[in-house]
Design goal:
The chain is of the alpha/beta class. It is built from 13 helices and 14 strands. It has helices at 4-18, 21-24, 54-62, 87-93, 113-119, 133-141, 143-151, 180-191, 200-206, 253-261, 279-288, 300-308, 372-375; strands at 31-36, 39-45, 70-75, 98-103, 123-125, 155-162, 195-199, 222-226, 244-248, 265-269, 293-296, 314-319, 338-348, 351-360. The structure holds NADP nicotinamide-adenine-dinucleotide phosphate (NAP). NADP nicotinamide-adenine-dinucleotide phosphate (NAP) is lined by residues 160-162, 168-169, 177, 198-202, 205-206, 226-229, 231, 272, 274-277, 279, 297-303, 305.
């Protein structure tokens, strides 16, 4: 049974973890709070890959005061040797008496922490029930890590901007459909994700840079282009060092060479039915590249393919308060075998913003107020 004071410490651990989620990826951003005799004696959050995990940071700050104390962790401590030694060993060596865990680690490589702690005589409390708000907050915070650990592919948020009549491209040739507030929220989303994805059509039409601007960034998201024929060239803004282009073996070899010479990573996968990149293979390749979370901002072609492939975990729909060419159209296809549920709706300046999640069955417009769990890993943005 978890005491209220321990829940309080777990909430603090989750808050600490929030600052570590982006910098730690593809490792989980974790928070740890160590208490003894009812007082906090140490706390910490995961450092970037290769650096210490949250438990080690907290144990260092606690020093001898950790002995006989309680460690509260947002995620089950790891039990394996990765780039750093197992966290369970550090907890055992520090002789903590209790460990309270909010969320289990589903990663088969790292899991087993609870059993190892118990074997060492440490009392283990948790993990919390699957519906517990603190555990749900961790699940939302770690949606990228959990996707990679359980599905081998990143968590995907798709953004689409449309006019009120469903046009995805401005008929007057203007670059932007939406206003400054909606566009600013896009930059916050980018800053909170590992990668920003578009199709080659958007690169050729708009030459976007896909970086996060006018927002504080821990590190820039990696630009990713799905580009079966390699229409992206080194002259495009997206083709900077660190960019990743997923193509097919049908693409001309000299184009791949030119991109690689510019510092772009080019990875070939199989071709899908329509001749584009095979999406399952493409996302598996992103997972192997350590990309846990993707903010996808493609045009209609790749957006429709992502939805049809069941690859969209959240749709962020920006609806401009004006008409396009006046031709009503259905811009947003339904997810396979289901529909969109409006998880959240609000406004960003003059534009409407919907957050939609795929659900089985018919569409529902039921809107739930954002909870700390559903809002945990979102950039601060629209007013609900
Ligand atoms: N309203 C919005 O939210 C928004 C966002 C972005 C862009 N846009 C607008 O959209 C227009 C471009 O539209 P678009 O549809 O060409 O852009 P896109 O969806 O970003 O790119 C489409 C291209 O991606 C490539 N691709 C690779 N694998 C694919 C796959 N499995 N499925 C689908 N496509 C795949 C294909 O070209 P290859 O076969 O050559 O690889 C395809 O033609 C521009 O005018 C741009 O301004 C609007």
């Amino acid at each position: 049974m978890i005491a209220p004071v321990e829940r309080h410490a777990l909430v603090r651990a989750v808050a600490l973890a929030q600052q570590a989620v982006v910098r730690a990826s593809p490792n989980p951003g974790v928070g740890c709070v160590i208490t003894r005799d009812g007082r906090v004696v140490g706390e910490g959050a995961t450092h970037p890959p290769g650096g210490p995990h949250a438990e080690v940071v907290a144990l260092r700050s606690a020093g001898d005061r950790a002995q006989g104390g309680t460690a509260h962790v947002s995620l089950e401590p790891c039990a394996h040797h990765g780039r750093t030694p197992p966290c369970v060993d550090a907890l055992v060596d520090a002789e903590v008496a209790r460990v309270v865990i909010a969320h289990p680690d589903p990663n088969p490589v790292a899991a087993g922490g609870m059993a190892r702690l118990r074997a060492a005589g440490i009392e283990v409390i948790g993990p919390l029930a699957a519906t517990d708000p603190i555990r749900l907050a961790v699940a939302a915070q770690l949606e990228g890590f959990l996707s990679l650990a359980t599905r081998g592919r990143p968590h995907v948020t798709l953004k689409l901007a449309q006019t009120a009549d469903g046009a995805l491209v401005a008929p007057d040739g203007q670059r932007w459909l939406t206003g400054p507030a909606a566009r600013a929220s896009v930059h916050r989303w980018r800053a909170a994700r590992d990668a920003v994805l578009v199709g080659s059509g958007t690169v050729v039409a708009d030459d976007p840079s896909l970086d996060a601007r006018e927002v504080v960034v821990v590190r820039q998201p990696r630009p990713v282009v799905f580009d079966a024929r390699l229409r992206t060239t080194p002259a495009h803004r997206v083709a900077r060092a660190g960019a990743l282009v997923i193509t097919t073996s049908r693409a001309p070899v000299d184009r791949a060479g030119a991109l690689r010479a510019a510092g772009v990573e080019v990875v070939a996968v199989g071709a899908g039915e329509g001749g584009g990149v095979a999406l399952d293979e493409a996302f598996a390749a992103l997972g192997r590249a350590g990309i846990a979370s993707v903010f996808a901002e493609p045009g209609a072609s790749l957006a429709a393919a992502l939805v049809a492939g069941g690859l969209v975990d959240r749709l962020v729909l920006h609806v401009a308060a004006h008409l396009g060419d006046g031709q009503p159209r259905r811009a947003v296809p339904s997810p396979p075998g289901g529909a969109w549920r409006t998880e959240r709706s609000g406004g960003a300046g003059r534009d409407a913003v919907l957050h939609l999640v795929p659900v089985p069955g018919p569409a529902t417009t039921e809107v739930s107020e954002p909870t700390s769990a559903t809002a945990a890993n979102r950039p601060v943005e629209e007013h609900a």
